[in-house]
Fold:
Amino acid sequence: MEGQPDEVSAREQHFHSQVRESTICFLLFAVLYVVSYFIITRYKRKSDEQEDEDAVVNRISLFLSTFTLAVSAGAVLLLPFSIISNEILLVFPQNYYIQWLNGSLIHGLWNLASLFSNLCLFVLMPFAFFFLESEGFAGLKKGIRARILETLVMLLLLALLILGMVWVASALINSDAASMESLYDLWEFYLPYLYSCISLMGCLLLLVCTPVGLSRMFTVMGQLLVKPAILEDLDEQIYMITLEEEALQRRLIGLGLSPSGECNIMELEQELENVKSLKTKLERRKKASAWERNLVYPAVMVLLLIETSISVLLVACNILCLLVDETAMPKGRRGLGIGNASLSTFGFVGAALEIILIFYLMVSSVVGFYSLRLFGNFTPKKDDTTMTKIIGNCVSILVLSSALPVMSRTLELLSVFLKVPQCHALPPHSPPDCWASFPCPRNH
Structure:
């Protein structure tokens, strides 16, 4: 009886900690969901909402796509959040107001990211795509129920198709009876194995997109920022482009009056749009302040050059170490735990550099993804992107964001700054048991 109050107190503390962690996770996800919703509605085509039934279908697909994009953002932010949480706990170990920031919360966030990533990849996004394309089976009454029924049937057929393909691949690679029987265990083996295969494809895609994005970042930032006007007369260029615009408008008016000039109207209209776009850029350069022209552009370019050089140097050093020293191979070790030791030799500065590199690699991979010819048509356009393209973009970003921790750990991009052992190659459903530059997620 004497130990009963302690037991009740421990149960109460566990209950309050679980409620607190659930509340924090909900609030963080709610913020990401709201931001993702505004991003998608900025690019979504407004003409998709015409009929009542189609409007409901588009709205449901929009909510599912927003949920997937929020999960992708959470997967990207978990690495920086884990790093900065460790540094904050080192600086304020006994602070009452940050006691909620603990290892249990970080582990819970990683587990939720793993669960929601699987849910979005295998259930929500296929459902949104088939539901958007469905019309209902012939002979049945049209409506939302008929479209949901067709979508569920298509999902079932897709699941059977993927299951059969995995069985055939397993039989071709390894015909052992034990490996075939393990596929019947859907929850413990099949789904983690399937997600690992998709994560591997995401890593390969990330390895292809990141170098392309690193080279394209300079071009993209050059288009977004105002370049210095060195030995250029912007007034003269604007005057010339205005004359060209007026000439094109007069030609369009003349072709519009003549019955035989309809074939060249489309070409002239496209040329006129290009001229107007160039004129807008020149006017923006003229209105920009001297600080924006002469300071921001060079500073951003130098920063991009430094970040790219550091990333390439880290990868080169890691490859050289792996070629020369066998002991440099990553091994699974148990770390010191969150908040017990700094993750970087340089302390908070090194941790900040790690976070900057993580964001830079993710942005570069996204830029490289849209720069590839194969995925060039996926590029979203403001107020002119169909829901089908939005679903494809959300799935692509989810795969890239899920593969980012794996690529960062495999290439040892952050290992130069670390002085705490890292974990590597944990089973898909084993809980993260070490802390280094980031905790190992369950889904990897």
Notes: The chain has eleven helices and no strands. Residues 138 and 146 are 10 Å apart (CA to CA).
